[in-house]
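User:
I would dearly like some help making sense of a protein record. Take your time, and here it is.
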Amino acid sequence: MRKVIAFFLMATWAVGILYILWGPHLADLQARMENVRQERSEWLSVSGTIEEVQFHAATDDNDSSYVLFKFRYNVSGVLYNTAQKWADYTAGYKEAREKAKSQQPGQPVTVYYNPADTRQAVLYPTSVDLYEVSTWWETVLRILTYPSIIIGCAFIWQIITNGKTHNSMKSTTNRAGM
């Protein structure tokens, strides 16, 4: 059983280290986000209406706070209902709260829609959620990175300290037995 746990902990640690060493991939994510922003800059605009505003935050210092805007818009006589998650990962609770207060249900807004697929629309074309450009496994790796490193370091520390304690006990026992 100890070997299974040891293998799991080492594998977990390795995942964390590999992800950190995989830094250039993070630059690729940034480039993908910039591509989405660029594509959206070419989208057409139309008038729409805010339907609902949901503010999401766990604590006052939660920098993963975000706002979900639900809105409707009309393109060529077809009415669409959609939503956009606004998240600025450099901003925190207060900025997200202010963004939520800036739009109220029933308020007219400018909606930017994709002329190639009019079902795709946003209120803030430069706001790209990281999960919009990530694959499922990138998301899992991001979530596991830091816990993996912490668990791995704890495991390595346990190996180092137990190894020394075990060897020093052997040595003391051998000297006492001589």
Remarks:
- The CA atoms of residues 116 and 131 lie 22 Å apart.
